[in-house]
């Protein structure tokens, strides 16, 4: 049991030490209430921003280790039209 605890501790420390080498993506939304194509509903707005953030987060796999990609979203203008009923 003691050996297992030491192994887990060593693995956790190694993981923490290597995390500094991971790539990172930071996303900032500037005035999202003013975006061209943003839903009116607060729930839909939050969902839309989460979807964009989730996509941007996948870009870390394309970056070299230790790099940080900073994305500043100034507007969201989707293709096509949003028809209101």
Describe this protein's structure.
The protein has helices at residues 2-18, 42-57, and strands at residues 24-29, 68-73. The chain has 85 residues and is of the alpha+beta class. The chain has a domain at 22-77. The chain has a two-stranded parallel ribbon with strand order 1-2. The longest helix is centred in the N-terminal third of the chain and has 17 residues, at 2-18.
Task: Give the topology, please.
Layout: H1 2-18, E1 24-29, H2 42-57, E2 68-73
Parallel strand pairs: 1-2
Features:
85 residues; alpha+beta; two-stranded parallel sheet; 2 strands; 39% helix
Task: Kindly state the percentage of residues in helix.
Answer: 25-40%
Intertermini distance: 64 Å
* Stretches with pLDDT under 50, minimum 5 residues: none
Main sheet: strand order: 1-2
Largest sheet data:
2 strands, parallel
Number of strands: 2
Q: How would you describe the oligomerization state of the chains in this entry?
A: single chain
Gross morphology: elongated
Strand portion: 5-15%
Q: Number of helical segments?
A: 2
Provide the residue-averaged pLDDT: 82
Query: What is the radius of gyration computed over CA atoms, rounded to a whole number of angstroms?
Result: 20 Å
Note the run of SSEs as H and E. HEHE
Structural class: alpha+beta
């Amino acid at each position: 049991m003691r050996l297992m605890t030491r192994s887990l501790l060593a693995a956790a420390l190694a993981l923490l030490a290597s995390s500094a080498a991971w790539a990172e993506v930071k996303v900032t939304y500037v005035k999202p209430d003013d975006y061209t194509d943003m839903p009116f509903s607060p729930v839909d707005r939050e969902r839309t921003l989460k979807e964009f953030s989730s996509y941007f987060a996948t870009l870390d796999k394309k970056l070299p280790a230790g790099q940080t990609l900073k994305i500043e979203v100034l507007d969201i203008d989707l293709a096509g039209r949003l028809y209101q009923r």
